[in-house]
C-alpha cells in the first residue's frame, strides 16, 4: 500500500514537473519563477552567508534557530524592495563579503550574543544581500512569481544550514561546524579582497 | 497484475512528459467558465498567497475564527466579485496584492493575537477588495458569474483546508513552520511591492 502511495506521489510529481509548463503560452511566468529560484543560488558569497545563518541558528538553539531564518528573508526582501525602487546603498558588494566574514566567525567561535543582537546583525547584512538581488533583477520577468522563487530558494538555503547544523549535538559535529565557519570566514575575506581590489 | 499496473503507469508518464501535448495550452481550462474559476488560484499566486495567509491566520486564532472565516471570506469575495462584474473599474491597481501579502503574512509570522472578530473583519475587507478586482477583470474579459462561482467554491475549500490544518497542529515545530510560512509570504509581498514601485 505504501509502495502504491509512493508510486502515485511520484506520478503526481512527474505530472507537475515544470518542464511541461515551459511549453505553455504562460511561459513568461514560469520563467519568472525559475529565475527567482536560480538567483539566490547563483552567487557563492550569497549562498555561504545564507547557509551560515542557518548554521549559526542551529548553534544558538531555540528560539534563534527559527527567529534568524524568519528575520533574514523579511529584511532581505526589504533590501530587495529598496534595490527595485532604485534606492542606492553604498558598498553593497563589500558588505556582502563582510557578512561572510562576520557570520563565519560567529559560527567558528560559537558566539552567543543576546538574541536581539544576533537578529540585528543578521538583519543588517540581509539588507545588503537583498539590495544586490533587487538591483540585479531581470527586466520583464513576472514580479510575483520571481519573488516566490526568490524567497523559497533563500528559505531553502537557510533550512539547509539548519539541517547541517543538526550535527551540533555531537562533539565531532561541533568541531565540523566550527571548521565550516572558518572556511566561510576565509571565503568572505577572499570575496572582500575581490570587492575592494 | 503488478507488472501490468507498472506498465500502464509508465505509459501514462511518457504521455505526460511529451512536451508537444502542452504547446496548445492557454490560461483557460477548456472546460468552461466554472472550471476556469476553479483553476484560478493555481494560475494566480497574487490571489492564492493572501488567501492562504488569511486561512493560516484564522487557523492560528482557533477553530471559532476558522469557522467564521470559512463563511466570511468566500461570501465577501462573492459580493465583491458581483459588484466588479456589475460596475467594473476602468483600471486595476497593482498595490492591493502586495500590501495584502505583507500585512497578512506579517500577522501570521508574528502569530498576532487578534480577536476572531478582527480576523473576520480582515477576511471581509480582503474578500471584498480582491473579489471586486477579480470581477472587474472578468467583466472586461466578458466572463460570466459562473467563473466567479468556481473561484468562490475553490476559495472555500482552500480556507477550510488551510485553517483546519493549522487548528489541528499541536507540535511546537508545526506552529513555527506556519510562522515561517507567514514570513515568506510577507517577504514575497515586500518584493512584489518593490516590483510595483519599479513599474511605477
Overall body shape of chain B: globular
- Low-confidence stretches of chain B are 18-26
Radius of gyration of chain A: 18 Å
Global morphology of chain A = globular
Please count the helical segments of chain A: 9
Structural class of chain B: mainly alpha
Give a quick set of tags describing it.
A: 197 residues, mainly alpha, 80% helix, B: 200 residues, 9 helices, 0% strand
Please give a structural write-up:
The complex is a heterodimer of chains A (197) and B (200). Chain A is 80% helix and 0% strand. By secondary structure, chain A is mainly α. Chain A has one domain (26-196). In chain A, α5 (64-85) runs antiparallel to α8. Chain B has 200 residues and is mainly alpha-helical. Chain B has one domain. In chain B, 78% of the residues lie in helices and 0% in strands. Chain B is built from nine helices and no strands. In chain B, α4 (45-60) packs antiparallel against α9 (172-199) and α5 (63-86) runs antiparallel to α8. The longest helix of chain B is centred in the last third of the chain and has 28 residues, at 172-199. The radius of gyration of chain B is 19 Å and the shape is globular. The relative contact order of chain B is 0.19. Residues 18-26 of chain B have low confidence and may be disordered. The interface between A and B is large, with 40 and 38 residues.
How is the topology of this model organized?
The complex is a heterodimer of chains A (197) and B (200).
Chain A: H1 2-15, H2 18-21, H3 27-38, H4 44-60, H5 64-85, H6 92-109, H7 115-135, H8 143-165, H9 171-196
Helix pairs in contact in A: 3-8, 4-5, 4-6, 4-8, 4-9, 5-7, 5-8, 6-7, 6-9
Chain B: H1 2-17, H2 33-38, H3 40-43, H4 45-60, H5 63-86, H6 96-109, H7 116-140, H8 145-168, H9 172-199
State the gist of this model.
With 197 residues, chain A is an all-alpha fold. Chain A has helices spanning 2-15, 18-21, 27-38, 44-60, 64-85, 92-109, 115-135, 143-165, 171-196. Chain B has helices at 2-17, 33-38, 40-43, 45-60, 63-86, 96-109, 116-140, 145-168, 172-199.
